[in-house]
Write a structure and sequence with these properties.
This protein has eight helices and seven strands; from the N terminus they run H-E-E-E-H-H-H-E-E-H-E-E-H-H-H. The protein has 272 residues and is mainly α. A hairpin with a 4-residue loop joins strand 6 and strand 7. The chain is globular.
Length: 272
């Protein structure tokens, strides 16, 4: 007897996320490998151009995009090359609140709600506008609870840093692997590397809470599935944060001048 296994919507979503995570570094690598016009060789004996030495007293400010692809919130990215400065619990809650209630959260929740409606996930919600409204509310709740748990509450309790420390250079595959594994590796408030308990326990807590409003998917397999999709989504977002500056620079041939991190290193240092 042949048995056809139809993956659920959350598994399909996870597969889409994994596929996109693999495509982004490849696209960035392809953009970066576009051969620039070769410069003509300079005649022998031509002295190299003289560049003024940078003033050590005026370090160049590091800027990060507020939004990845102009849409997705990017308030917790900093450069790995910058000397580490811890952030306070108040700053962690600021990051979580900004990520949870920024305007892109609402259309993203609407898109997921439409997907769940088409697949009739949680049939007890029904169809029509009433069913869509319930799915929209639960999708929005998933995002807000997940963000606050992984970026604010658990990092504050466990003294871990919720920020993503972007490499910004190196082989695309190495950077992609680094970005995806940051859901398991983070820094403590002391700057030491540690297992990312805030991410795993935060998402696990969010999944447990979601059982209160998902009456049709409360068994163990459903909970594990939701946890895996949450972790995969966060890993995918790290990959986007890692490669977005490269993609933008190649596509638009410029650096963004409109962006600044929500928590700068100087602010972090000044609030110790």
């Amino acid at each position: 007897m042949t048995c056809w296994l139809r993956p659920s919507g959350r598994i399909l979503s996870g597969l889409y996320i994994v596929a996109l995570s693999a495509l982004i570094p490849l696209c960035a690598h392809a953009q970066g490998s576009d051969a620039e016009p070769a410069k003509p060789a300079e005649p022998a004996g031509t002295p190299p151009p003289v560049r003024p030495a940078p003033d050590p007293n005026t370090p160049e400010p590091v800027k990060e995009d507020k939004r990845v692809f102009g849409v997705f919130p990017n308030y917790r990215t900093t450069e790995n090359s910058i000397p580490f400065q811890p952030i306070t619990a108040k700053q962690k809650f600021t990051i979580g609140l900004k990520d949870s209630f920024d305007w892109p959260v609402y259309p993203v929740a609407g898109a997921f709600s439409l997907l769940y409606q088409l697949e009739d996930q949680n049939p007890s919600f029904g169809q029509g506008m009433k069913g869509y409204a319930r799915r929209y509310g639960t999708a929005l709740g998933d995002q807000v609870i997940g963000n606050m748990m992984t970026e604010s509450i658990m990092p504050s309790l466990l003294r871990q840093d919720p920020r993503y420390f972007r490499l910004g250079s190196g082989h695309p595959l190495h950077r992609a692997f680094y970005a995806m594994t940051r859901i398991f590796v983070t820094r403590t408030d002391a700057g030491n590397r540690a297992f990312n308990f805030a991410e795993v326990l935060g998402n696990s807590t969010a999944v447990a809470i979601s059982n209160a409003y998902y009456p049709d998917t409360r068994d163990v397999s459903d909970n594990v599935e939701r946890l895996c999709v949450a972790l995969a989504t966060d890993a995918f977002s790290q990959v986007m944060k890692e490669f977005w500056p490269d993609v933008k620079r190649k596509l638009f041939h410029r650096h963004d001048t409109d962006s600044q991190p929500l928590i700068s290193q100087s602010q972090a240092a000044g609030r110790q």
